[in-house]
Amino acid sequence: xxxxxxxxxxxxxxxxxxxxxxxxxxxxxxxxxxxxxxxxxxxxxxxxxxxxxxxxxxxxxxxxxxxxxxxxxxxxxxxxxxxxxxxxxxxxxxxxxxxxxxxxxxxxxxxxxxxxxxxxxxxxxxxxxxxxxxxxxxxxxxxxxxxxxxxxxxxxxxxxxxxxxxxxxxxxxxxxxxxxxxxxxxxxxxxxxxxxxxxxxxxxxxxxxxxxxxxxxxxxxxxxxxxxxxxxxxxxxxxxxxxxxxxxxxxxxxxxxxxxxxxxxxxxxxxxxxxxxxxxxxxxxxxxxxxxxxxxxxxxxxxxxxxxxxxxxxxxxxxxxxxxxxxxxxxxxxxxxxxxxxxxxxxxxxxxxxxxxxxxxxxxxxxxxxxxxxxxxxxxxxxxxxxxxxxxxxxxxxxxxxxxxxxxxxxxxxxx
Length: 416
What we know:
The chain has 416 residues and is α/β, with parallel strands linked by helices. Helices cover 49% and strands 16% of the residues. It has helices at 8-39, 41-52, 56-59, 65-73, 77-97, 134-147, 161-170, 180-189, 206-215, 239-250, 265-280, 287-293, 303-313, 324-327, 345-350, 386-402, 406-413, and strands at residues 3-5, 102-107, 110-118, 121-125, 151-155, 174-176, 199-201, 220-221, 229-233, 257-262, 296-299, 317-320, 336-339, 376-384.
């Protein structure tokens, strides 16, 4: 991982690289989506064979109950216990996040109350790659269950036995062996084999993320979540631990972005050496490629300059291992923040209870991570009595007339 001085030119180059890559990716994803919309299953099956080497005509789109039963026999009690522990913590946080019904009287005789209803049908995208991410199933399905979503389907290009077992434990009955932009298109528009859903959830590679953004005008999505980003800012600290956190996120994909920001030239060199040492102990990891192509160690002039860059970049993951309580006050944009030296980022990926589906690509400037609130609709209900009508009528007539909306005025005046 190269060491760079954090200058306006460096910052501009890093942000521009992300924007350029997004534009190229969108063009590719758009072609795949158009093909699936036009040709439905024929296109979906062709892409599954081309990208995932899966013959859906032979295997079928949906995982069978027999496959799930076989998988259950192949997993350990320790794995099931770990799923239960992680699910318990995610559920605890999701229950706290869930919007609640309320009632308020805004004027005498005028009551507004909120009702909370679950989204009817959702699709959970589970990244495949080298391993299917069981943790993502937890992070999307558990909040859906807390919200009371009645119809949940999951898609994964290469569901392994552990994923199938976890799905069974969480009550997911429908899992399709599809992935990529083509799976997003199938969920958004429907095919003969795959039902259309109301909202799509879950992280993915850059093509999945682009596909979600493209279909969002027709099918709701949670947020752009991928490729992975990680930042650590420290002026002092344990170089081994810092390097380990950066590599943990860097191994997700070749384009995962990991950055260490510091004001210390000495610590920058220590972290750089630790990254090389730990990579030597992690043969075959994609972190070797991503740290070279998408990562950097940045030396800032001051804490303020570092925090200004962090807020502009708006990383998915941010660690503040030292002086955390002070520095976090300067942070306005990040998907999730880990405070203190013991906050290893993988703890949040799996089991703290905080959701690991987080905004990337600068979206943390606009919103936070996934929560149970994303799985429900908050509907306002208005109850107006005769007394309440008379209390508001004159003001509403005046405002309607000021806008030239005479039929609006008439709908009130006619009741006088």
